[in-house]
Amino acid sequence: MRNLTFFMHVSLDGLISGPSGEMNWIKVDEEIFDFVGTMTAQADTALYGRVTYEMMQGYWPEAGNKPNASKHDKEHSAWYNQVSKIVLSKTLSQNGLHNTTIIADNLTTKINAIKAKEGSNILIFGSPRASISLLNEGLIDEFWLFVNPVILGKGIPLFKGVSGTTKLKLIGSRTFGCGVIAIHYGKS
Q1: Mean pLDDT of 106-111
Q2: Is the pLDDT of residue 94 over 90?
């Protein structure tokens, strides 16, 4: 069975963005990019909500081809272009999408069928509304929370809309030089 792993940056006070969606407080550097690269190397599928997918599609397909592309941009762009993509959306059309599957209904059945197929891990980056839907259905196997050294005070909470308790066990953690701590949890 393939794992569905959730990645999210979060403030110390549990927010994923500022009140208007600001994410300029997120700390990333080469050390974090290299670490995430080890995770993407173990995955052959990316899962997104519609909003995050459209944001990713607007940047990653060509990011590695830009003259000033960083090592991370080149590597992540190559990964993004080759992996299968799953998008949770009731409004996006499948027409014209390459290597992308739209899931609009029967979430549990369809995600479990994908997890049961031969392959590597499935990663979900951000996508807060889609992640809550997956969490409420018990479909997320692992969590990587990148706790940033900032208190926002106002913004969008990480797990807004969770319908019940999900017990987790600590698998490990990692501290980065920029002050971010990555905490890895799995289902208990």
Answers
A1: 96
A2: no
pTM: 0.92
Which residues are bridge partners to 147 per DSSP? 10, 181
**Cα–Cα nearest to 7, from 146, 118, 103:** 146
Written as one string, the DSSP assignment of the chain is: ---EEEEEEEETTSEEE-TT---TT----HHHHHHHHHHHTTEEEEEEEHHHHHHHHTTHHHHTTSTT--HHHHHHHHHHHHSEEEEE-SS---TT-SSEEEE-S-HHHHHHHHHHSSS-EEEEES-HHHHHHHHHTT---EEEEEEES---SSSEETTTT--S---EEEEEEEE-TTS-EEEEEEE-
Cα 178 to Cα 143: distance, rounded to the nearest angstrom: 21
Domain ranges of the chain: 4-51+84-187
**CATH topology classification for 4-51+84-187:** Dihydrofolate Reductase, subunit A (3.40.430)
60: nearest Cα among 34, 41, 78: 78
Residue of 128 and 180 predicted with greater confidence: 180
Cα–Cα–Cα angle for 39, 40, 42, rounded to 5 degrees:
70
Structure tokens at 158: 């990480």
The number of beta carbons lying within 10 Å of the beta carbon of residue 129 is 14
